[in-house]
Specification:
The protein has 463 residues and is an alpha+beta fold. Among the domains are: 26-133 and 165-221, Immunoglobulin-like (Sandwich), CATH 2.60.40.1730; 329-456, Neutral Protease, domain 2 (Orthogonal Bundle), CATH 1.10.390. Helix content is 24%, strand content 30%. It contains 9 helices and 25 strands. A hairpin with a 4-residue loop joins strand 3 (48-60) and strand 4 (65-76). It binds zinc ion (ZN).
Amino acid sequence: MALSRSARLGVLVTTAASFLAVAASAPPTQGAPGIGDPYFPRLGNGGYDARHYDLDVAYAPGTGRLDGRTTLTARATQTLASFDLDLQQLEVTRVEVNGRRAEFTRDGDEITVTPRRALPEGRDFTVSVTYGGTPRPLNGPIVFGSDYGWMKTPDGVFVACEPNAASTWFPSSDHPADKATYDIRIKAPKGLTAVSNGRLVSTYDKGESTYTHWRESKPMATYLATATIGEFDVRTGRTPGGIPVYVAIDPVLKNANNVDVYGVTSAVTDYWSQVFGPYPFEETGAIVDDMPQAGFSLEVQSKPAYSAVRGEGTIVHELAHQWFGDSVSVAHWNDIWLNEGFASYAQWLWTEHKGTRSAHDSFRAAYDARPADSTFWQVRPGAPERDTMFASAVYQRGAMTLQMLRERIGDPAFFRLLPAWTRLHRYGNASTADFIRLAERVSGRQLDDLFDTWLFTPGKPAL
Ligand SMILES: [Zn+2]
């Protein structure tokens, strides 16, 4: 995520301990209502591992009504008597497990599903939920007071859900530690374009509607899913390096467009593929929509979503997230600097690559700009609080940490470390402790002091 205004308006699912299961036919139990994230105790769910979502969404921009059916294929990690799904705001009308109607109850944003028979540990099951309503955006201190989530636009909807808004439009295990693949089918009024993750499978008109099917074949965190709908000019092709590109731009922004989004996206995707390792997804691109109420852009998987025409720096940032955040995702939300510090540092690497300013000079400027008594230095990027997870220190002090690391271990080790990180945790989840361990292994240095100082100690570090 990249903030766009000057005002600055996450343990993996516990793998069921197998030694416990040795006591054969442990009685079925209820799956936990949360995945264990200290910032969001009820997000994600225990007792199963989401594997694939089939999302069917019909949206009527005129009324704002969404009608959906989600079929989740999951694997039980304990023998389940019941389990939870996360769903905010919308009404559930029917639930089926393995094709048979199942009982469900609701407690706020938690839907508890009780199948007719217990679901055995280690086995796949499907749960289908029919639901509907009028999704509203979330708002609060987390995303610096901006609306986020499902945001109505004059011609459709702009969907950008970090960190906790995916469950405002589909029932899910709404936490990045439970990644899955997706088929996303969107029904919208004829003439509108529906843009989502991965690759376009098909689109056709029938009656007064357009039906569009997208497929994300690589694991994806819930918050990175989108179903953005509106009038769009679409350009497709390939980067010079051969990666498919899909860029959708709201035509009302045509005249505001002084950035070649297609060209920059192509060049940056290719450059990061050299620096960070192979591009992790099947397609790159951009969604540029006219959504002034969203003061941010988001690294939607395979197609970052920009709420207006943004500058080159923002495109550089969101594309770096395809490696840092999307392919390698946080284990807990308090690891968020692994996303934002890295994407911000990527912006410094880009200006260095362009010959405009070295990353060292960018570091120096960011460091010097903040006096020692600035509250900026009180946020610990390696351990922010929930409501400061997107504070500027997570971005800028996170980036400073990487420059300090680079200067300590030297360029050869540093530029081995980045692709080693994206390779080791590709399509998975990782924590700050994992990063420190790898940095020490790759460099052969002991680095605790550096990370303690820059990530975990309040106050302005001395140079
Ligand atoms: Zn970001």
